[in-house]
Structure formats: C-alpha cells, structure tokens
Amino acid sequence: MADIALHASGINKYFHDPVTQQILKNITMDVTKGEFVSIVGKSGCGKSTLLYVLSTMDTDYEGEIGINGEIATGKSLNKLAAIRNESIGFVFQFHYLLPDFSCLKNVMIPGLRLGKYSHKELEERAYEKLKMFGVAEQALKTANKLSGGQQQRVAIARALINDPAIIMGDEPTGNLDSKNTGIVFDLFQKLSKEFGQTIITVTHDEDFAKRSDRIIEMADGQITDHGR
Amino acid sequence: MKISVNTEIAITYLTSRKKQTFVASMGVMFGISMFIFMQSLMKGTNDYFEKSSFNSTPHIRLYSENKVADTHMLNSFLKDSSTKILTNPKQLTQSQGLTDPYGIIRLINRDPRVLYVTPQVTANVIYTSGSVQITGTVAGVNIVQEDKMFDVQGNMISGDLHDLDRVNNGLLIGKGIADKLSLHVGDNITVNGGSGSTQIMRVIGIYASGVKQVDETKSYANIVQAQNIMGKDRSYVTDIKINLKDYMAADVVARKLEMLTGYKAEDWVAANEQLKTAFKIRAIILNSVIGVILLVAGFGIYNILNMTIYEKMKEIAILKAIGFSGGSVTSIFLQQAIYIGLTGGIIGIIFGFLMSFGLSHVYIGSNTPMGTLKYFPMSFYLPHYIEAIIFGVLTTVAAGYFPARKAAKVDPVNIIRG
User: Fold this and answer.
1) Is the pLDDT confidence value at B32 over 90?
2) What is the CATH number of domain A34-56+87-225?
3) Is the dihedral of CA B177, B179, B184, B185 positive or negative?
4) What pTM value is reported for the model?
5) Strand, helix or coil for residue B252
6) How far is B16 from chain A, CA to nearest CA, in Å?
7) Is B200 exposed, middle or buried (0-12, 13-18, 19+ CB in 10 A)?
8) What is the mean pLDDT of residues A142-171?
9) Torsion angles phi and psi, residue B165, rounded to 5
10) pLDDT at residue B300, rounded to an integer
11) Is the CB of residue B412 less than 8 Å away from at least one CB of chain A?
12) What pLDDT, on the 0 to 100 scale, is given for residue B372?
C-alpha cells in the first residue's frame, strides 16, 4: 500500500438544505502515487463535492480518508490545515490569488506558512516555479495586473511551492482558452511524469480528461467507472 | 529579524488600504491624545489646588478641642481605678490655650518626618478704623517660620513682612481689610481682642492670598502682640502648625500626635474635605468622557475590520485552503487591530503631549480668584502616558477580537464553491 497517495472508503455525504439529500453514496477509491486522474460527470453528480471531501477542507462526511497513508478523518481543523499546507496543492477554477500581494509573494505564502525553507531559499524556489511556467517577468506585479492565463499559472506555481504529494484541481482550465488549457495540461503531465506528483482534477473538458492517465466517471453521487 | 508570515500579511493588508488604516488610527489617536490632555489638565489643576490649599492650611494643625467629661479623667483625678458611672456628662470648659506648648513643640520636633513646627495664637478681634468696624482674626505668628511654611512673601502686595518683628504693634493685613477700611501701609488701625484691651496697631504690610474670605478677615501680628491683644501671658498658644517632609503621611503622623499630646490633630485632608470630593467628581467626569471617546474609537476599528473581513472573505477562504489554521487567521486580523492601536496610540501620545505643552504656555492672567495662577496648570506625569498606551491597545484588541474570531470561522468550502 506504500504507493497509494490517496485512499477513500465508504464516503457518504448529505446536504441538509433545503431538504436532506444524499450527494455522495458509498464512494470507495484509491489513487496511486504519480497518477494523473480526472473525475468527470454531469453537473450536480457530486464530483466537486467529492473533491472537497478528499481535500480535507470539507469535514462533514461519513467514511474514512487517508492521505499518504495517514488517516485524515477525525483530525482537528488545525491538524488538517497543516496537512493541506504540506501535502496538498490546490488549483481552482478561479485563480484566487491575493490581490494585495505580488505574484512572487503569492507563491511564497504557503511556503512561509510551512516554514521549511528560509525566506531567501523560498524566494529562489518561487522564482524557479514562475520561470517554469513562463511568468517570471510578472513576478513583482500584483496579481490583478496579469491576464487570466498568467494568473492561473501563478496559482499553479503557488500550489507547487511546498512540493505537495497531491495536487487537486477543481476545473483548473474552466476559465481558460484552448491555448492556455494546453499549457496547463502539459504542466500537469510534466509534474506527474517527471516529478511523480499525484494529480486529481475535476473537469468538464473531455479532451483534457481523455489525455490524463485515468478517468473516473461519476453519476448521481456514485462512481460508475473507475477507469481501470 | 524574522517576521512571521501572519505579521507580513497583516502589515500588507494595512498598507494596501492606507486611507482606512489612517482613519482607524486617527480614531485611536484622538482618544489617546484627549486622554493625556485631560489627565494632564486634571492632575495639574488638582495639584495646583492641593498646593494652594497648603498656602493657608498646614499639613497638620494641633489645637485644643472641647472635650466631654469621661470616667478616665475622674480616675486620674481621684488616682484610683474603681469603676465609675457618669450620668449626663457635660462639656469641659477648657482654656483655648495648649498646656506647655513649647514642650509639645520640642516633642514634635523629635519626629524625623516633621519639617517645620510653629506656634500660633489665634485671636478673634474687631478691627476699627474711623467709624467702620469689621470682625476678623489676628494670627500671632513667628513670621519667619510662617513665611517658610506658607510663602507669605509671595502674597505680599506692599510693605515688608519682616517689619512684624521690627515695628512695635505692627500688623500685616489682608487686602480685603485694607479695601474695606481704606488703609495703606503706615496707617493706624484699632484692634479689639474682646477681653477688654484695645490696641492701636500700625499697618506694616498688605497681602492677598487669593482666598477672599481670608483676605477680608485675617491679619498677621507678632506672636507676643497677639498674646497682648488676648490679654494672656507669654506661654499662651492656641495652635501648633506642622509641615511634614511628605504631606501624604499627614494622616499617620496626626494620629500619632493625638496619642502623644492628647490634643486634636487635624490633617490637611480632613481640613479640605470639599477639595477631595471635588477631585473625585472631576475624576469621574473625566474618566467617563475618555471612556466614551475610546469606545467610539473602538467601534470604529470594529467596523473597519468587520468590513475588511467581508471584503476579504474569499482571500480568507484561500488562506485556509492553502493551510492557514483558524488561529493564524485570527492572528492576522488581530495583529491589524494591534498595529492600528499602537500607531494611533503613539501618535496620540505625541499629540497629547503637544496639546498639554501648548496649553501650559497659555497665559490666563494673574488676576484670577486664585491669585497667583498665571498659566494653565498642566502636569506631565509619566504614568498617564503609559496608561494611555495600555488603554489604547486594550481597546483595539477588544474591538479587533470579535471580527478576527469571525474570520477564523470562515468555512473555505462554502466560500470557494460559492
């Protein structure tokens, strides 16, 4: 089991507003280390909800989740925040950069929180990441001065600063044109192939999904196809 | 120096919204500077009144008070110790004079806390000049010692107070008496001590203490002269006035002197009860005004932080998503409140000092009821400044705590998913 990056078993989740409704029904899944997985399904099938449960941000569920062999279910909120900080990188549909900070600072903030590297080392690492994504020239601009594609690339750089074991994407290309989608996809692929990082994305984009290692299909809160 | 990431974020938030930060700091600044300004004015005024009360009141006054007869006296008279019952005890008729006053003075002088001791003969008299008569008192004093204790020289309008020792039958009269009887230095005045002897005295000086009641009734004479007016011998002394090195100890020393001498020792606090009450009332008024100002400043900070948190809801969610705990988020927003409090507090202290300093140089004239007051009495008292900073930071922390808690409770999933 050493090569399992993420493990979920018997996940049930309910929404209570306006009426109680089961969103996730007995979901059990494994993601191997270095795998690039896409979760697809119609709107409302619960795929985003599943991602947020897997991300440890949503704690209102039944079942058990393990990240890197460590059980996350039932941990305190502070402990979960520390797990997210160290082991999970997020890319959202919107970039969600902090507008008051420069791009470089935005990328550095999760690293500063973790405190593993010194300020100077972090700055170098952040520059490297930005260079890797071709946005190093924008490093000192504030986030809202960048184009949508550039912002998303900075956001991905931020997700990677702590070298997380798992990168989660909630429609990471949902707001991007095809050119930028291509760039982001290539980056993800490079991360999983070259750096052995696990990638789990929820997407509507069929082309994007098809090119990933595995597609998990969902319908009505259940996994209909594990893709293997 | 290593700054924590929370601090870095807090400072960035503050500096990227300079106007709001400025307004919030100004609120605190205003509260703190008013606090300092009003505290300085109040303490200055209180100190002034306290000091001016020592211009006429000694720290302790020892005098003979009429007593009610008790069995203790009877025992010491009969020289036995049997139990006696007094029915319907009466007031004892006692001489106004103290027994062996110079012995008592020597005794008092032995106490190391005592600075000055001086005897006084108080005589109730009627002043007559021409056909006008007014009542008043003559204080028979040792004028050199009196001057040391009460700065008589500082109140002199005309004449030389040392003439009391040099001129036979000299009298130093208050400005009110001089005005009423139309007297000048060198004029004669008739003084009647009530026990039959009428003395013609010479005005050697006029003083104005600033207290109208005193200036219209009291005059100084040589102690021997006062004894003459009363028709008493040279050992007749009605009061012993005592000044201490530390006037705050008056209470304790007074109790000890009462025990030692058996006479009534009144300390300045008891003699100026109304002054203390005025101090207290002023303190209450002042503190409520400052409280309201700080409360308003606190609400200002609360509002601004609350608004900031609503605006930054998404960013807070993101911070939590990338691994900031609730505690870190609280710290980020609480630190903003503290920095607002500190900047506002420090500027407020400087501003408060400048206001106090400015007012202490405003001339309000010497012709006030208090006589010698020329400038606003301001005190520059370090603990006020320390208190101000503590109050300022406490207010802002209290105001910042609730919004910060709210920020910590933001649920990232709800916000990010919309």
Assistant:
1) no
2) 3.40.50.300
3) positive
4) 0.73
5) helix
6) 6
7) exposed
8) 88
9) -85, -20
10) 80
11) yes
12) 61
Using the Cβ of B166 and the Cβ atoms of chain A, whether some distance falls under 8 Å is answered with no
Per-residue exposure over B91-115, b if at least 16 CB sit within 10 Å of its own CB, e if not: eeeeebbbeebeebbeebeeeeebe
Domain ranges in chain A are 34-56+87-225
Tokens standing for residue B208: 């104005």
CA atoms within 13 A on the CB side of B3: 11
Cβ atoms of A7 and A65 closer than 8 Å: yes
Inter-chain contact B320–A158, Cβ cutoff 8 Å?
Answer: no
User: Are B326 and A119 inside 8 Å of each other by CB?
Assistant: no
Q: Under a CB-based contact definition with an 8 Å cutoff, are residues A51 and A226 in contact?
A: no
CB of B328 within 8 Å of a chain A CB? The answer is yes
- Residue range B201-220, pLDDT digits in tens: 999 999 988 778 888 999 99
- Distance from B8 to chain A by nearest Cα, in Å? 10
Question: Residue B283 — φ and ψ, nearest 5°?
Answer: -60, -40
Q: What is the pLDDT of residues B94-142, one digit of tens each?
A: 667 788 888 888 988 888 888 889 999 988 899 998 888 999 999 999 9
pLDDT at B2: 60
Question: Are B322 and A58 within 8 A, CB to CB?
Answer: no
DSSP string, chain A: -TTEEEEEEEEEEEE-SSS-EEEEEEEEEEEETT-EEEEEE-TTSSHHHHHHHHTTS----EEEEEETTEE-TT--HHHHHHHHHHHEEEE-SS----TTSBHHHHHHHHHHHHT-S-HHHHHHHHHHHHHHTT-GGGTTSBGGGS-HHHHHHHHHHHHHTT--SEEEEESTTTTS-HHHHHHHHHHHHHHHHHS--EEEEE-S-HHHHHTSSEEEEEETTEEEE---
Rounded to whole angstroms, what are the CA distances from B156 to B161, B174, B371, B374? 8, 9, 11, 16
Shortest CA gap A58–chain B (Å): 6
Contacts of B320 in chain A (CB under 8 A): 57, 81
How far apart, in whole angstroms, are the C-alpha atoms of residue B188 and residue B202? 5
A99 contacts in chain B (CB < 8 Å): 315
**Residue the block writes with tokens 């808690």:** B405
Question: Rounded to a whole number, what is the distance in angstroms from the first to the last CA of chain B?
Answer: 40
The token duo for B64 is 């003979």
Structure tokens at A104: 């470089």
Q: Where are the domains of chain B?
A: 5-53+275-417, 60-268
Please state, rounded to an integer, the average pLDDT across all residues of chain B.
85
> How much of chain B is in helix, strand and coil states, percent to nearest 5?
55, 15, 25
Q: Which residues of A touch B13 (CB under 8 A)?
A: 100
Residue of B nearest to A119 (CA): B2
Name the β-bridge partners of B171.
B203, B221
Rounded distance between C-alpha atoms, residue A80 and residue B325, angstroms: 8
On chain B, the residues whose CB falls within 8 A of the CB of A112 are: 5, 8
pLDDT of residue B367 exceeding 60 = no
Residue A33 — left, alpha, or beta (φ > 0 → left; ψ -120 to 50 → alpha)? beta
Contact criterion met (CB below 8 Å) for B167 and B250: no
